[in-house]
Amino acid sequence: MKFLDLFAGIGGFRLGMEAAGHECVGFCEIDKFARKSYKAIHDTKGEIELHDITAVSDESVRGIGRVDVICGGFPCQAFSVAGKRKGFEDTRGTLFFEIARFASILRPRLLFLENVKGLLNHDGGNTFETIIAALDELGYDAEWQVLNSKNFGVPQNRERVFIIGHLRGKRTRGVFPFGGNSEEINGNNIIQINDSKKIRKQLKYENIWRVIDTKGIAPTLDTMQGGNREPKIKVREATAQGYAEAEIGDSVNLAHPNSKTRRGRVGKGQANTLLTGESQGVVTPDFRIRKLTPRECWRLQGFPDWAFDKAQEVNSNSQLYKQAGNSVTVNVIEAIARELG
Length: 341
Hints:
Layout: E1 2-6, H1 12-19, E2 23-28, H2 32-41, E3 48-50, H3 58-62, E4 69-72, H4 96-106, E5 110-116, H5 126-138, E6 140-148, E7 159-167, E8 233-236, E9 243-246, E10 251-253, E11 266-267, E12 280-283, E13 289-291, H6 294-300, H7 305-312, H8 317-326, H9 330-337
Parallel strand pairs: 1-2, 1-4, 2-3, 4-5
Antiparallel strand pairs: 5-7, 6-7, 8-9, 10-11, 10-12, 12-13
């Protein structure tokens, strides 16, 4: 299927979609540094290239032609617990409606969207209800699920909600619940297509498989199963004892090290959710904490080393960290993309 890559970043959606056999016809990305990485990694010759999505006219959108899928990890800062959670009051939050505008003109069979898990409960669920209602009004039935990158072959605890919109009247099949052993939470969590007005809580993909490839994916992070793992490093956290213990191979969030209110700063044998800065560290065999390198951060998002090497030629380390934190996890995108039809 032909797809359009909106809010393209460095092309995490694109790598996953292409690995599943789909074809990119164009991309849109406002950040000039991300575009440098994108164009270094992907062969964009002859493709439609858009920058500021809000400046793209309806006529230009119509000129794109036939598209089967619109992909987009629309900006999540407005809904993330790491931000101020202003939602649609934040101009970044309104960018979802640019996806809706493109969909209303191009009428693709499918929409494939991604955002932070916090989108589901932002403003008591009203924000997500507004999004689903907008899709419903456009003629799209929606299904969605929270998936964690750690279950898709990368040692990173990264929960994101994925939304699939199905154009009514077109023959498309459901994608979620993903996998065969999804675990229900809080009772009745069945996701239904053609029922987008009845918003229900998510099935959570959990422990269908967990693979940590120490040869190819962030080799400094491994499962560390068994053996004597003393001594340990104590990391300040807002827990009953006031700290968490980090061992060899564990990750440590280096942001706000003196905070007494933060939790979850230690990742047991895996990275915490990558952010846009240099905030991830790993405990080394000599019990020191070193920052993850940009290459390791890209690996944690499922990018192959050849892609990182090309991006490194055109961007600084600070930009490479930012780009990894803003990206989607390629492995998750590919798994979902293989189910689209």
